[in-house]
Amino acid sequence: MKVRSGLTQYVLLLVTLWLLLPALGMAAPKQNFDHFETGFPLSGQHQTVPCSACHLRGVFKGTPLTCNGCHNGSIAPGKPDQHVASTAACDDCHTIFAWQAAAMDHSSTVGSCTQCHNTQLPAQHIQTRAQCDECHGTVGWLPARFEHGAVSENCSNCHNGVTAKGKSVNHIQTAAQCDDCHNTVAWTPARFDHNAVTARCSSCHNGAQATGKSANHTQTVSDCINCHSTSAWLPANFSHDDITGACSSCHNGDVAPGKSDNHVQTAGECDMCHSTNAWLPASFDHNSATGACSSCHNGTMATGKHSGHVTTSGECEICHTTTAWLPATFDHSSFSGACNSCHNGVTATGKSGNHLQTASDCIDCHGTIAWLPANFSHDGITGTCSSCHDGGVALGKSSTHIQTTGECDVCHGTNAWLPASFDHNSAAGSCSSCHNGTTATGKHNAHITTSGECEVCHTTTAWLPATFDHNSSSGLCNSCHNGVTATGKADNHFISSRQCDVCHTTQSWTSVRYDHVTSGYPSGHSGLSCTGCHTGNSESSVWENPGYKPDCAGCHADDWESDEHKKTKNPRTIFYTISELRDCSSSCHEYTDNTFSTIKKTRNREHSPNGGDF
């Protein structure tokens, strides 16, 4: 009996708890409950977690649906202290099956790279203060870009030939760092400072590694620095004391200045005539010369024929003496050049400043006896016509000549001035400067009134056909558009005294614009047809009821309906008169009584001018 009593009490306790669950905010468990119905289907590791791990104290309502809603370190394990600083949600990197083997998206991380990548740099890594992402990408360490600005060690720590490219075996011997000469963009071009070099000059300046002694260098065993400076090869110091060869071993024209091609022919050494201080002055004895006069007297080595000398192949002594150049004998029969080789105004009398420009020789026009008389042919002239035909030297343009920049031969022949051709392309003046009716055909009496020049409408080939531009016309439209000179008003044209351009454009007769100019034109009638008012084909319109003009009733009095226009109904019905409402678009209120002081019904602008219906 005691056992049954205890079992009964246990069952009663369970029933009581079951009944109290709703009151305690707890839902009674369901058999075969489908979690998918909650909008949060269980998958992965969530399938093995007991309900109470998420639904604390049996409360189902309000359970978080996001990862970090539970995995915050309170309900479920959250980010540990050493977790990557990130703004991403758990499932951006982790899966529902395990925390490990998580994907990683660097774009959501916050902070510097070294907060995670904080292990020591590998031994071979470049010493730098830069963050990882300044050189490396988030996908892989390599390839990596590099910025020398953040490097904190010497160049040679990397550029040692192992870690990075370093000094080659034939590099200049120096204790300087790379950046003393090279820049971080490229090895070359490179600046160079001789002060850092520790070897002899010839260790580099050997003709292979750097410029060295050339094949024709002065024979010497001295090092470069004995004569040359570190700034430039030249100027260079020099002492003959180091030279062991003869003068001609250097002074051969290659290594050092020597005998030129026009040097006095001699087999002697330099010092027989020249000193070691300077080539000149030099001693000389004509008795030792073995060549012809011209071998020295060629204008280079010694005074010779100048540029204005008479053209001749003879030696100096044929005309000149050994005592002096002048006086000298001369015979034209030995002359082999052109006249102007002497008659150039310097050597002998030549063309004066105002001579005709010509490339012909003197003998083409002049005789050998005297300059005048002289023959003349235009064929030899190289200058322009106007260089002679200027009205001074020869007949030129008269004061009435057509304005042109063209030369005479553009229109005239060399035989006579007339007849002459004409090319409008060379004319420099305006058309009317010639086409004035006197010099050349000009505007006739019936010509269209215009201030424009001829070429505005006409061509230089013929007067007709001709184009026309209304912008240059200065007369009234009907001065041309009169039905004779140009198309005018047709017989059925709207009767008006206005000019064509008031309604028409210069491009086309249609479409037509028309502006009413009289003050009697009612505004707002733009939507009506012209014939609605202009019953005749005339610009003037007739008022049907002229006693009411210029108000609406002037035309619409016949449409008046008095019963539609009540003024009051008390004490009797009174209607508005036409005269009172002659302006149909004004107000016509209905009043409470015949005192017309209190408005009973307001009617403002019941009729619109463009409404089309009253």
| Helicity level | under 10%
Question: What is the global morphology?
Answer: flat
N- and C-termini, Cα separation: 110 Å
- Spell out the helices and strands N to C: HHHHHHHHEEEE
Query: How large, in whole angstroms, is the Cα Rg?
Result: 59 Å
Query: What's the arrangement of strands in the largest beta sheet?
Result: 1-2
Largest sheet: 2 strands, antiparallel
Quickly count the helices.
8
In terms of per-residue confidence, which ranges show pLDDT below 50 for 5 or more consecutive residues?
A: 1-8, 13-28
* Class of secondary structure makeup: little secondary structure
The portion of residues forming beta strands comes to under 5%
Number of strands: 4
Overall residue-averaged pLDDT value: 78
Walk me through what this model shows.
This protein has 614 residues and is low in regular secondary structure. Among the domains are: 476-542, no CATH class; 546-601, no CATH class. The protein is built from eight helices and four strands; from the N terminus they run H-H-H-H-H-H-H-H-E-E-E-E. Strand 3 (590-591) and strand 4 (599-601) form a beta hairpin. The chain is flat and about 160 Å long.
